[in-house]
From TrEMBL:
This is DNA-binding protein. Residues 35-84 form the Helix-turn-helix domain. It comes from Bacteroides acidifaciens. SUPFAM superfamilies: Putative DNA-binding domain. NCBIfam families: excise.
Length: 114
C-alpha cells in the first residue's frame, strides 16, 4: 500500500472514531442520559423539589421510576432548558411568537381545576 493511501485511510479512521466518540458521549465528562435524582434535577433547573413534582404531574417533564423513586434523564433536563430558553436575536415570526409565549407564561389559562 502506498504511503499516501495509508495516510488517507488512517485520517478517515480517525474521523470516524471521533464521530463515534462524539455520538456516544465519550468526549464529555458525563453521559447525556445519566439518571439524576429529584434533588439533582431540581438543582439544575433551579426549582424546588415540589415544583419538579408539579411539573411531573402536568406532564411537562419526562421521568423514570426505579424501585419507587423518580429519576430524570440528563437529556430531558437539557431538552426542557432548551425549550424554555428565550432567543435573544429572534428574527423570524415563529421565534418572536415563541419568545412572547415564554415571557408571558405560555398563554395557558390559569384558574381552578375541574
Amino acid at each position: 500500500m502506498e504511503s499516501s493511501a495509508f495516510t488517507a485511510l488512517t485520517e478517515q479512521i480517525a474521523e470516524i472514531a471521533a464521530h463515534v466518540r462524539a455520538v456516544s458521549g465519550e468526549s464529555k465528562g458525563e453521559s447525556p442520559d445519566r439518571l439524576l435524582t429529584t434533588r439533582e434535577a431540581a438543582h439544575l433547573l433551579n426549582v424546588s423539589c415540589r415544583t419538579l413534582q408539579r411539573m411531573r404531574s402536568e406532564q411537562r417533564i419526562a421521568y423514570v421510576v426505579l424501585r419507587g423513586k423518580c429519576r430524570y434523564r440528563q437529556s430531558e433536563i437539557d431538552r426542557l432548558l432548551a425549550d424554555c430558553t428565550v432567543v435573544e436575536d429572534a428574527a423570524t415570526p415563529t421565534e418572536l411568537k415563541r419568545n412572547h409565549t415564554l415571557r408571558t407564561g405560555g398563554g395557558k389559562p390559569r384558574g381552578r381545576r375541574t
